Amino acid sequence: MVPETATTDLSVVVPLYNEEKVLDELNERLKNACSKITQNFELIFVNDGSSDGTLPKLKQHAEADQRVRYIAFTRNFGHQNAVMAGIQYSRGKAVVLIDGDLQDPPELIPSLYEKYLEGNKVVYARRIQRKGETFFKKATAGIFYRTLKKIISFDLPLDTGDFRLIAREVIDQLTAMGESNRFIRGQIAWLGFRQAGVDFERQERKAGDTKYTLRKMLRFAMDGITSFSNFPLQIATFMGFLFSLVSFIIILYALYSKFILKEVVTGWTSLIISTMFIGGIQLLCIGIIGEYISRISADVKKRPSFVIDETNLPGTGNVVTKD
Ligand code: UDP
Ligand code: MG
Predict the structure, then answer these.
(1) What's the number of domains the chain is made of?
(2) pTM to 2 decimals?
(3) Residue 111 in domain
(4) Would you say the CB of residue 166 lies under 6 angstroms from ligand 1?
(5) Which residues of the chain have pLDDT under 70?
(6) Phi and psi at residue 38, in whole multiples of 5°?
(7) Are residues 223 and 237 in the same domain?
(8) Distance from Cα 212 to the centre of ligand 2, integer Å
């Protein structure tokens, strides 16, 4: 059953961070792709605190076509929060998430929609090839997702990003998940539902450089792990047990050599090595625990994930706008 909140056939959510150069082509190609499905669609562009001309350009497009919506943040809140904002304000029966740099071809949307009509609630786009991305990025992503898949208890589709179509039922469940630090592709996989994939070749960026710095990528990876797995904590506990056992044996040996053999082992090297080693492991474990605590802390604070500065969305009475 399609809930009443869905008044449009199709919404497309696009996060944008300094993507001025691609915006015209993006807008054009998205409209063409959506028109193949329905005329009753909306494009929701989320300006994630861009410092270039993205916002003025968005306003022009919105002026020219009322199906173009924009949400402008007060600063850069990050990709996942930008996607989430678009999702929250979308009104489509089906919602497509797509990157704004044209690495994800809008022309694939009709194929995603076809699979949706076949009854799938989530249709993700699977990258069979990735052009124009560094070996480092492909290798680290490959290892990360394959490891993550092993340590979580549900099925995670590999070689996918956030480019996908999601049915309204899934959107409603997704927006009800209250976590502050989001890993949307994982949350969607966690929700289950009937899912299917469509293969595509990921293109090079049309213009500009990646907006995912190494720091943002690491943060994202950390959120992926800590939101879906306690495995690092289990390793910490395991190491604790292991080292306690080893220490216990060493203690017995030390007592034995002092009281029975009457000879004290004088070994600065072994002492310093074991102290440094155990010190290192302890710091690592504290760090792991700290990661989980910082997640709890963020969730307890219940701060909004983003602050909207301006928007042309209808019916957003609680949103502070400039005019
Ligand atoms: N993006 C964003 N906020 C950010 C970083 C990225 O809204 O802080 C947007 C960006 O404009 C693009 C999408 O998220 O539309 C994916 O980012 P990018 O292409 O830089 O990532 P990559 O494809 O290199 O992983
Ligand atoms: Mg990209």
Answers:
(1) 2
(2) 0.85
(3) yes
(4) no
(5) 1-5, 265, 315-323
(6) -160, 160
(7) no
(8) 8
Ligand 1 neighbourhood includes 202 CB (under 6 angstroms): no
Instruction: DSSP letter for 95, please.
Output: E
How close is the Cα of 70 to the center of ligand 2, in Å? 20
- Same domain, residue pair 169 and 274: no
* CB < 8 Å & 24+ apart, contacts of 185-191: 185/124, 185/156, 185/160, 185/161, 186/148, 186/152, 186/156, 186/224, 186/227, 186/228, 187/227, 188/122, 188/164, 189/154, 189/155, 189/156, 189/157, 190/154, 190/228
Residue 3 inside a domain? The answer is: no
- Domain-located, residue 176: yes
User: Is 1 part of a structural domain of the chain?
Assistant: no
Boundaries of domain holding 307: 8-229+303-321
Q: Which ligand is nearest to the CA of 78?
A: 1
Give which of 132, 105, 100 is closest to 20, Cα–Cα.
100
- pLDDT of 69 reads 94
pLDDT single digits (tens) 222-243: 999 999 998 999 898 888 889 8
